[in-house]
Amino acid sequence: MNSTRCIALCLGLLPALSCLAGPAAEVLPVARMIAGHSATAPVPNAAFAPAADAQSAPAFEGTLRIAPAELLVAPALDKRVVDGRDAQAFPGVSLQFLTLEDGTLVPLERGTMVTESSAGKTPSYWNVIPQFGRVWREKDDGGWSRAAFPLMLVNDTENHAHQGLATFLYRGAEVSAVQLQFVQQNAPYLLSPYCQFWGATRAAFTNTGVQNSPAQREAAKQELAARLPAQPLASLRKTLPAGTLDGLGGPVLPQWQVALGLVHNGTLYYEGADTPQGAYPYPLEMRFGVRSVTKSVGTPLSLLRLAQVYGPYVLDLKIGDYVPGLDPKWNRIRFIDAANMASGFGGVGSFVTHPNDDNEGYLLADYDGWYTAPSHAQKLAHINTHLKPYPWEPGTVMRYRDQDFYLLGAAVDAFLKSVRGPQADAWHMLEEEVFRPIGIAHAPMVRTREPDGREGLAWFNAGYYPTLDDLAKIALLMADKGEHGGKQILHRGLTEDLLAARGALDKDGDAARPTDRAPGDPPPRLYRMGYHYTAGTGSRSGQLLQLPTMSGFGDNEVIIFPGRTIAIRAAKAVSWKGGPVVHGDDPLATARAVDRLAPL
Q1: How distant, in Å, are the alpha carbons of 65, 162, 178 from that of 151?
Q2: What number is the average pLDDT over the span 492-501?
Q3: End-to-end Cα distance, the chain
């Protein structure tokens, strides 16, 4: 396999390389790029990637300073300024780049949330995350070369992402304006409606600033080499009987999907949903705002890692011993109770628990006021003001509460500081001891915004921005019972319990008043340590399976199947009452597709 094809596979770029529709020089000619005019609408995505007849380009290395700019948007936003920050303002940022020998454009800030370094009249609502791109030449561009890279608009108040693209021309030390468009997105919450952004902005280049280029290049190559083997999902479909994978990604309807991933026999098969501008040319570079999928990442990985290092007793530590200033009931609430969303705290809504409504009161008590509170102290103050104890004991009733996971994250962080010193940080521990060993080089995460400028606490309730490759590796680590490369990273016994739903709570019940189930009753809906469980009967085994499932707002989902098969869906589906239809009529559509592929 030649190096260009290898990089194309790593970036998910093959569809763009074989697509000659809308080549960059025709859609974004040199004169327009230099003038920096914004288009009246987003252009075909093919203009942001080399076509099959593209020529090699000289390396691009240095610092690109991208000016703040007003983005165009369609349809219009319901509310443009949120908490004093403008959602139509592209943030002024400085990005450093170098280029690999095969034409891969490497942002040194890849996989990190880059904050605004220069602002317009109003600060921007957005941070950006750049990803690996490409440099190339087109025969009609004269002496200019082209660079393009994926760019995500992400937010540090809510776990929201718009997947986009950026491109510019370069010739020696000269650069053109930067053309931007954000053509896909995860589900909106504070910012609506669904929309696309685009525009152009000035840029300046200096060929200095990149330190230790050889080491940076080697790190980029190793990062790409550590990715799972990847192929377009279409290539797998061609090898299977017709209809085998029908329904994969369901019950979310295709128009509400953003990207799909399927790990089968060690290969990650991927597919990006089409946008109005065509296929997104770098599907493996997409980062997603996965919302509550974060609960299935930060919590189990940190608790299972700490249990491996210090012992299973960490699950029984009390939240109140590590987060001062809370209601006294938190002195009896264990880490595992909060991880099971069974704190017995947050007393709003109905107090009926038999049968239980796990979502009762979830968005009450000024939820948005807590969600948008920037600092840790403000979040704690909001909890103390608006939430009170329930009358039942911790560990008995599952009520969905983001606040449980937030406080658990704060407690885990404080415990880690108590045993490792004040410099310790729960999310950095995951980065160093879990993510990097399994090949995840970057883990961008929302944190509290502290008034003194110090690094805030990582949210454990939401905030993670992963790629398909990241989610696949995390799920495979769980499927392998916490072992990777012959090393036990997570506590094996506790990981096995989680995979088997041992100790899981019935969402519809009260553990103090067990429910008698009769033959023919639907299987229980279970929850444990940030995981939901998808219940279905295997066609081969005939047995009821409770499949560990990560789930987040917008219908983001990761399901772990027996045999190391993983189904991943990034989506933008919001099924508010009276809203559009976003689901088909088969809630087990994805499980049935996987069962046809690899009978369970």
Answers
A1: 15, 9, 12
A2: 98
A3: 35
> Which one, of 375, 489, 501, 486, lies nearest residue 440 by Cα?
489
Identify the pLDDT of residue 1.
Answer: 46
pLDDT tens column, 373-401: 999 999 999 999 999 999 999 999 999 99
The answer on pLDDT for 5 being more than 60 is: no
Residue 88 sits at the vertex; the CA angle it makes with 87 and 92, to the nearest 5 degrees, is 95
Domains delineated in the chain:
3-218 (no CATH), 230-293+471-597 (3.40.710), 298-463 (3.40.710.10)
Give the DSSP letter of residue 365: T
3 state DSSP class of 165 = strand
15: pLDDT strictly greater than 50: no
What radius of gyration, in Å, describes the C-alpha atoms of the chain?
Answer: 24
What's the pLDDT score for residue 306?
A: 98
**Please, are residues 180 and 149 in contact by the beta-carbon 8 Å criterion?**
no
Cβ atoms of residues 220 and 96 within 8 Å = no
CA distance 469 to 568: 10
Determine contact, residues 531/548, Cβ cutoff 8 Å: yes
Distance between CA atoms of 566 and 473, rounded to whole angstroms?
10
Answer whether 553's CB lies under 8 Å from 576's CB.
Answer: no
Residue 464 per-residue DSSP state = B
Residues whose CB is less than 8 angstroms from the CB of residue 284 and which lie 6 or more positions away in sequence, other chains included = 10, 11, 12, 227, 230, 270, 467, 468, 469
